[in-house]
């Protein structure tokens, strides 16, 4: 593999050719990593939609004659040798990101107080970092009634940011796709096609990939705020998946089972519905130890390793 | 009388039939080209002719063809974009309805040049009656040996299909069109890669507009030089203009590029002046997406030179004082027109047609419509006007496909040139022109 040099916010990094700007920034880490609400490294074709990861390519390379400077989605733009990228050092990027955050919120119900995702929601993080203190909209927001996507998953379409991740899970992970997008524009709707329930061994991963509270776990709904639960790495023998999960406990009770997510909120591995929904007894699991959540959001503050 | 390439025989009864078309010299270019030209030579001719894409962006057709990836043995596809849905644009329908064989003849030439053995005409769903006409014409072309195996004994095979969309403006965007043709939801793809490398079924593909393709037979019959001799500057050949609005003679006109805008609007050969002798207020010169210009700037450039119907002249002055030739949808508004109301209509369209993939366009188009609705109905504030400008700025350039820009430009330009009218709506708390 040939290496190429790219500079992001004045930090130079050498990465393999074919790496995206976003992933190059993740190699550097820290503040120069753009927020990514739709890209998901494990889902083919994801990214490019939410536009929160826009960065400025200040200078392209000799090989690519396209006119620069220009804002591009970092999750879908490959680095090129000699590329100069600005993220947090570009006022233009910061302005665009603020605007995108506002776009994502103008139709959002802002119902965090009653949303199960609160505390681990990427839209909350994004608004905290880039949102306005006040709203500039006075009109009604689009509304949909919550619906069931299968017997274990609840869809609150009002909260959906149309990142398409769940559609890609349905498409790429499950064998019979019955899940997709209906309609156009801001009246788009995530739907199981013609209300067929999603009944599949891996459908629960839709909950984990959803960056917001649009898809939530019906077996966990309203049981507890996530920051009152304590995450533990645990595993079990499973024939369908690796069986490596995170248990979210309150006292001795296992309230929720999810996959293991990295600091960008991406699952390390997809887990099966059996592990996720059907095993909530302490002796179902071998506990490995407390899970450290490396995020700056509310659950990221939940450090209790010393307990 | 201007040179006629596309409308020349439109008055001949039965032109849509193979027999009549052939008698008028139709399909001669196929005989000539398959015998005397290699595919690359056809591409060279088109390059030399200076023909630009007539679908809106005005990209040089020959150059687009030369980007086609020929390095693999994958099939290549040539697609005709017949999704014509831009408000104000209704020229392609005319070709398909009255002169389908000229389009088919052009499809054969383009497919031959690109090495495509299967080609598609993707037609807007609402034009089902035109689909029927084209399908009949395709059947006739097969029956007469111009389509199918071993065309005219040249060894070149071509299959041509006409495929209807389901009535979405976004499926006119070339990558959404390709997705739709593949049987998927018509969402634009993220570029790069461009269709010339990864297109239909992931194979190299060229998409061209109906009018672009219908010019090809004339170019091959008469030569690139003859085509390039028509027009001005880098605007070669003729252009169909669909003229509508407050003019005496709405309709479809074929002009030689370079015709003064003033002559186009006022001469009896074309629009025949403004209805009831009214004053011209504004023109949207190239379909609803391009910036609107007030009368003084559409007739003359900011430098005071007469504005011409050409790619360069209409763009003179950039977006500050200029616009674009676009798809040739020429919308004329007289003094009785409310610019805000017109803009609201456009914005409602873009809101309705946004595919919803990317957040600036999905959310911004609806937001702009709602604000405009408020202003037009007397509930707007001065802050709303600036908010509209800022929303349009935040959509522009930040989206997956140009529909976002197409929604933003009309808003930005209407406020740039007619700000007073927006402010009057706010001050009066109603539309100043409403009764
Ligand atoms: C939202 C949108 C709608 C479009 N609709 C059409 C259309 O109806 N017909 C068309 O020829 N081009 C349309 N285009 C332009 C096409 O993407 C493409 O540029 C064109 O078909 C290329 O043909 P040309 O080079 O011959 O102009 C549209 C573009 C956008 C962004
Ligand atoms: S439901 Fe969630 S995962 Fe699915 S598109 Fe909406 S925000 Fe994305
Ligand atoms: S700009 Fe609009 S139409 Fe184009 S991809 Fe984005 S949401 Fe869809
Ligand atoms: S993460 Fe790149 S566009 Fe959404």
Walk me through what this model shows.
The complex is a heterodimer of chains A (307) and B (435). With 307 residues, chain A is α+β, with helices and mostly antiparallel strands. Chain A has three domains: 95 residues, Ubiquitin-like (UB roll) (Roll); 111 residues, Alpha-Beta Plaits; 81 residues, no CATH class. In chain A, 17% of the residues lie in helices and 22% in strands. Chain A contains six helices and 14 strands. In chain A, the strands form four sheets. A five-stranded mixed beta sheet of chain A has the order 2-1-5-3-4, sandwiched between helices. Chain A has a four-stranded antiparallel beta sheet with strand order 13-12-11-14. In chain A, strands 6-7-10 form a three-stranded antiparallel beta sheet. In chain A, a hairpin with a 6-residue loop joins β8 and β9. In chain A, α2 packs across α3. The C terminus of chain A is likely disordered. Chain B has 435 residues and is α/β, with parallel strands linked by helices. Chain B folds into three domains: 212 residues, Rossmann fold; 104 residues, Ubiquitin-like (UB roll) (Roll), CATH 3.10.20; 90 residues, de novo design (two linked rop proteins), CATH 1.20.1440. In chain B, 43% of the residues lie in helices and 14% in strands. In chain B, the strands form four sheets. Chain B has a five-stranded mixed beta sheet with strand order 8-7-13-10-11. Chain B has a four-stranded parallel beta sheet with strand order 3-2-1-4, with helices on both faces. A two-stranded antiparallel sheet of chain B has the order 5-6. In chain B, a hairpin with a 2-residue loop joins β5 and β6. The longest helix of chain B has 26 residues. The model of chain B has no long low-confidence stretch (mean pLDDT 97). The chains are: A alpha+beta (307), B alpha/beta (435). Chains A and B meet through β4 and α2 of A and α16, α17 and α18 of B. The complex binds flavin mononucleotide, iron/sulfur cluster (SF4) (2 copies) and FE2/S2 (inorganic) cluster. One iron/sulfur cluster binds next to α17 and α19 of chain B.
